[in-house]
Tyrosine--tRNA ligase
Amino acid sequence: MNIIDELSWRGLINQQSDEEGLRNLIDEKDISLYCGMDPTGDSMHIGHLLPFMTLERFARAGHHPYVVIGGATGSIGDPSGKKAERPMQTMDQVNHNVEALSNQVNNIFSDFTMVNNYDWTEPIGILDFLRDYGKLFNVNTMLNKEIISSRLEVGISFTEFTYQILQSLDFLTLYRKHDVQLQVGGGDQWGNLTAGLDLIHKAEGQDAKVYALTIPLLLKADGTKFGKTAGGAVWLDPEKTSPYEFYQFWFNQDDKDVVNLLKKFTFLSKEEIDELAESIKTAPEKRLAQKTLAQEVTKFVHGEEALKTAEKITDVLFSGEIQALTTEEVAEAFHGVPSEEIAADPINLVDLLIAANVDKSKRQAREDIQNGAIRINGEKLTDTTLEIDPKESFDGKYIVIRRGKKKYFLAKIK
């Protein structure tokens, strides 16, 4: 299957500059292609995954992906999709983010070549920039690009206005130095991508074989944007979103969305995905499609060991056997649940529930205990006079409290 056909089947193509031309080029040879990412933060989130997993699909088909980390473009800010100017980052913050993102990309995508556009942008003087590149951009054309026109009513600075030129320069530089012929980006980047094509054709001639391809914005079946949770973005950094939380995010996807997500976020074949789609109809209670999705994406991003830990935590929480977890696994499993710090001294069970903010009053705490609603580290306790020694569980660092069937709290020992 031609890689373009595969991308089309997976629903990963939004716009193409020249489908026939790109197909013919791919049939002729292995190509070099790239996707850019500005260092607006120190971690990618799952919204970044689709463009880069698309590059990975090209890599597995024998092509050569480049990732441009925007040390230059990230220092001025991308106007795309924003109603106001981005806050300007310090160069120290930009450089910190560049390093963090580069390490993250290299850890997940081993076959990508990483480059930083600061390396070729910084040496360009202002007069050279205006003479060699600014002269090739028509302001009327730039104003008509959606990324610019959408900002004209509220205003846009000259700094963000020039972003389009800098990103176009990336494509021209990669084309000249590395024979990169395709840029991949999100749907909101179409104006920037086509500006890059225009610059190459003006600078190198209309015969230059260069192409642009965008990936659609991913929406859930109900029309809402995919990738956000009540707690915010789902990060690829395990310190921001633990592998267990990451696994659970994918496992909890709706039946209506899971097949679409399997196509886009896994490398499973059409036959394998068709089988999982059938399982939703015949045995939806098993959630086999969701489990496979969670396994595949977690393993790809975090590795086999992190997946095993996430599955172990999932099984333990389902069974209630909290003591089977290690101290490190407790920290991962209950990252983000309500937590309070308590002293390391032995404490009465009723007082523990108050200190951990499980109950608001001693009367309510006693009722919960006597009704069998309280479990400490997985064990049901019904004696209101019991004393709990924090030093006896999880290396003296945590006490896991469960009220009812699903409500967890974490007491962190000072």
User: Anything to note?
Assistant: The two ends are 59 Å apart (CA to CA). Residues 91-108 form the longest helix (18 residues). Residues 339-413 form a domain with the Structural Genomics Hypothetical 15.5 Kd Protein In mrcA-pckA Intergenic Region; Chain A fold (CATH 3.10.290.10). The chain has a mean pLDDT of 91.
